[in-house]
Design brief:
Layout lengths: L1 E3 L2 E3 L1 H15 L6 E2 H7 L8 H13 L4 E3 L5 E3 L3 H13 L4 E2 H8 L3 H13 L4 E2 L8 E3 L5 H18 L4 H15 L2 H19 L9 E2 H7 L7 H13 L3 E5 L8 H6 L1 E2 L5 E7 L3
Antiparallel strand pairs: 1-2, 3-5, 4-5, 6-8, 7-8, 9-12, 10-12, 11-12
């Protein structure tokens, strides 16, 4: 028991009150400053600033509270790195971006944003793209080779057009050329990366077990797969890896022809409607 200005306060009770105040704040918009926390305590439970700072330091050392960066120390119930990661992921939902743009859009110091991006890339939740000129992009899905080949391909296509070749013939030639460069194993790896990236774009909580709609996934990757069978085979191949689970529709008889066509036949009288990461 300690006293201040004639009032008695108990350290344990002050810790509980501080934790409740900070936890009510949630992840956003900011942490609690020392002054704000002091003002939030009832009159009979306000230690001196020095004693309050000591109590807060103890809560931080035990992992109960966390210090957020800023002009003055701020205290929160969650580590700032988690908040930074959530902001970065939210921005990448809008499309690929660079570290500096992510930092500005996420309202993060550049160094903090860089650490968050590094951790997300290391965990596989974000993809680091090859450099495009002087820019380093990051995204929720792998880089699209077309972004890197577009300039050269446009030159080739224009040149062939000037020689009198028809657009459809040029397109067919480019497809045959690309198919000749990629073997079956490489195609499978490319498809897996594309599927996983698109799944994370559709469902940010994928890594926590949230399923992704097969119909949405098909629509998102409509330009990547030549036809329905190619997409279906890629998804079924992903499931065969043992890292993913497929969910079947409970009432297939109620599906329209169009709805069935957007799903995948499970060969048991129903259709796979969702896919998710297996959680052992």
């Amino acid at each position: 028991m300690a006293t201040r200005a004639g009032a008695a306060w108990d350290r344990g009770e002050v810790e509980v009150l501080l934790r409740r105040a900070v936890e009510r704040a949630g992840h956003e918009p900011a942490s609690w400053s020392l002054s704000r926390l002091a003002a939030a305590l009832p009159a009979g439970f306000r230690p001196s600033r020095e004693a309050l700072r000591e109590i807060l330091d103890g809560l931080v050392s035990r992992g109960i509270l966390h210090v957020w960066p800023g002009r003055a120390p701020g205290y929160a119930a969650v580590p700032f790195v988690e908040v930074a990661a959530a902001r970065v992921l939210a921005e990448l939902q809008k499309g690929r971006s660079t570290r500096s743009k992510l930092a500005r859009a996420s309202r993060l110091p550049l160094a903090v944003c860089q650490d968050a991006v590094k951790d997300l890339v290391g965990s596989g939740r974000v993809f680091q793209h090859p450099r495009l000129g002087n820019r380093q992009h990051f995204g929720l899905s792998p880089a699209d080779p077309l972004d890197y080949a577009r300039g050269g391909l446009e030159t080739v296509v224009r040149g062939l057009g000037r020689k009198g070749f028809l657009a459809d013939d040029i397109r067919g030639a480019l497809v045959r050329f690309a198919e000749g460069l990629t073997g079956p194993r490489e195609k499978g790896a490319d498809h897996e990366a594309a599927l996983l990236g698109a799944m994370r774009e559709i469902e940010p909580q994928l890594d926590r077990g949230a399923p992704v709609s097969i119909a949405q996934l098909r629509a998102r990757l409509s330009t990547r797969f030549a036809d329905k069978r190619a997409f279906d085979d890629a998804v079924l191949g992903l499931a065969e890896s043992g890292r993913f689970d497929l969910q079947s529709h409970d009432l297939p008889s109620e599906l329209s022809d169009q709805e069935r066509d957007a799903l995948i036949d499970n060969s048991r009288g129903s259709y796979f409607m969702a896919i998710g990461l297996r959680r052992d």
